[in-house]
Amino acid sequence: MDQEHDIPEIPVTKGLVFVSGSWHQMGVQYGKQAKDAVRIKCASGIANAVDYWRRKGTALEAVQEYQKLLEEKAPQISMLWHGIAEGAGLDFTDIGLAYMDFRKTDMRCSNISAWGQAAAGQKTYCGMNCDEKELVNYYAPTVIAYPDCGYPFISASGFTCNCVLNTQGLVLMASCGQNAMPEDVGVGLPNCISLILCAVSCKNAEAAKEKILAERLGPGGGENIHIADKGGKAFVIEHTAARDMVRMAGDNGEKDYLLATNHFMIPQMESSNFFGQKHEEWMNSYFRYWSEEQVLVENYGKIDLELLNNALGNRRFFAKDLSVLGKKRWKVPEAVRSGWNDLWGGGSQLAARHTGKFSPEIRTADAKCVFSALIYPERLEFYLLNGCRDKTMSMNPWATGVFTKTIMAHSAREVTESVWEEAARRIYEVSCMNDMGDSLKEAKLAYAEGIYWRNLAICEEDCEGDLELWSHSASAFLKAQQYAFLNIGEGKCNGF
């Protein structure tokens, strides 16, 4: 990979990239439009691969086995990656090293679905946090894809992403699992690739579950694959290289809701969960699960996007059953008590280092929530936040704590019209408050830019390059949405 030292700034808002056609064509379009994001992803991915295999030459040899499996199980993804390499001006080897899963597990990310009796109006609502250390996902744009064959879909952050929605109202989310046993680790597909494979080909959660199980589409390590649809069906597939098992609402006392963080809950999967002091850092997975679930329990029957946002952005943490952690020989900080705890237990920085990681957004020095999504699948509404809700804790220097709103539709023009309408509504709403601060000025500038690109896109509609113009327009309107609500009060008004 050629070295380029002119690193772009972290964007205020996740851009939006439209692609269409064959898998290769979509890859080329993405590579061209998101060249900077692809290069940043490659630098991070290759560095991780070299760290894992100790030498780049060894990593290059190893990746051939992974690519062979990819060609067998998901040739369309191989075509996509060849296209991305071509569009971004990179060697396919770089893409393979960067995007392939090398048995990595991580104690981060959360996802929730709620429906039926648990949810307001008995609708289905979904939400997730993506947490990472490398900050790569700050740069990756949202992708809306219109494949030649299959259902259109929106992927929150590039193509290898743990949050996807298709036009049928099918939601697919994922978080890393664990792989304590030797057989839990092996050659597998890249993390989260099962999500876009199912988004293109599956109409509902049942079909997606059966596809993943039948074709063994999980990665070479641990993963929780969370599937939900607008009809109120949901599953979590607890996956390792050795086996897949399905968890449903009711298996652990849930009623019409499901959650997943980074541990397995099915008894037969318990041996794959880590234990012992060496793995004490995985303790945070339990606290995040308990904290998110407790918000659902306390608001049962009223769960909506706002409640999911509160659960995933909670500034406290809940301790449900500390004996579980004791059995794993993990030492819980002395300040922690059963029930709700203040995040900064003990009030000191030392205490915060222990308890900050127990919050759903992972408020620690070395890792953070880098983006969040909230989804109303019946209406195909997709809300996205770049950075943490806790703006000062976010590693994104431009974090706003504001979600943008996109409605997944059947054409780039329809999507752009929806984000334009939402931008206009937000600007008007804030303007009525007689507050002409700098953020509102920025919103209006972005709004004008969106209209300019929209007009150019209409002039070039159905011509080569028009999707890129629609991408520019939609991205500008999303920026306008975010700036309009910047000073309205954190979490007070996100258009949910």
TrEMBL record:
All copies of the Peptidase C45 hydrolase domain together span 138-289
* InterPro entries, A to Z: C45_proenzyme-like (IPR047794), Peptidase_C45_hydrolase (IPR005079)
Q: Which Pfam families match?
A: AAT
**Top-level taxon:** Bacteria
The record ties this protein, via Gene3D superfamilies, to: Penicillin V Acylase, Chain A (3.60.60.10)
Q: What is this protein called?
A: Peptidase C45 hydrolase domain-containing protein
